[in-house]
């Protein structure tokens, strides 16, 4: 996920008859934080990597190393990826193979099949939407806190990150 340091406005409720407007400050900067994540669908464990660097094959290779470190005793690791060009690069495939990680790519334009997309939406709800972070450092700390303390949201995530996918039958 590529998150720009700025708030995203979302919906909010106001009592009928109440007056006034909810004002939320915003920033004009374009500083961006790239968040690469892997989600274990069985344990809900998240491996995350935060970087201001552009997402490319080099960043993905570093991330794959982090995944292997988190699951050093695992005999088999399979990661399902979207079709971003840096996920399909030869160097990424070679690094994954050398680390004993199998990469599988989801069909194009199917974020509904990628379980981590639900986590990204939840993250935005808790950290980005309708929140103002006065500077990038504050924003970065808040993002890092979310991922370092993700167990605080375990109950909410348990219901959200299920393996229930709707199967659409073709005629």
Return Rg in Å: 18 Å
Distance between the termini: 35 Å
Helical content class: 25-40%
CATH architecture title of the domain at 31-118 and 136-152:
2-Layer Sandwich
Mean pLDDT: 86
Structural class: alpha+beta
CATH class of the domain at 31-118 and 136-152: Alpha Beta
Unreliably modeled segments: none
Annotation, overall tally of beta strands: 5
Put the structure in a nutshell.
This protein is an alpha+beta fold and 171 residues long. It has five helices and five strands, in the order E-E-E-H-E-H-E-H-H-H. It has helices spanning 57-70, 90-98, 116-128, 136-148, 154-160, and strands at residues 2-4, 32-39, 46-51, 77-81, 101-105.
Q: Secondary-structure blueprint of this entry?
A:
Blueprint: E1 2-4, E2 32-39, E3 46-51, H1 57-70, E4 77-81, H2 90-98, E5 101-105, H3 116-128, H4 136-148, H5 154-160
Parallel strand pairs: 4-5
Antiparallel strand pairs: 1-2, 2-3
Helix pairs in contact: 1-2
Describe it:
Helix content is 33%, strand content 16%. It has 171 residues and is of the alpha+beta class. It has a domain at 31-118 and 136-152: Nucleotidyltransferase, domain 5 (2-Layer Sandwich), CATH 3.30.420.10. Strands 1-2-3 form a three-stranded antiparallel β-sheet, with helices on both faces. Helix 1 (57-70) runs parallel beside helix 2. It is globular, with a radius of gyration of 18 Å.
